[in-house]
Design goal:
The relative contact order is 0.17. The protein is built from one helix and four strands, in the order ββββα. It is globular. It is α+β, with helices and mostly antiparallel strands and 69 residues long. The N and C termini lie far apart (32 Å). The chain has a domain of 40 residues. Helix content is 19%, strand content 26%. The chain has a four-stranded antiparallel sheet with strand order 1-2-3-4.
Length: 69
């Protein structure tokens, strides 16, 4: 299996905090909009830190499994 890593320029991305986040800013993910095939995420407490990007289908499956418990 070939492992390829791509870098995406997220420097001008608009980030949104989850609506499930508490108002105190703790333990939150932020998601960048405007990427139809990817779901970029970052830690709201470390905005300059690393960002992860998941394929949209994989992210949808992950969130769906969380909702099911």
């Amino acid at each position: 299996m070939k492992n390829s890593t791509r870098e995406y320029d997220l420097s001008s991305a608009t980030w949104y905090k989850s609506t499930y986040s508490a108002g105190d800013g703790g333990d939150c993910l932020e998601v960048a909009a405007g990427h139809p095939t990817l779901v970029p995420i970052r830690d709201s407490k470390n905005r300059r830190g690393p960002k992860l990007a998941f394929r949209a289908g994989a992210w949808t499956a992950f969130v769906g499994s969380l909702k099911q418990g």
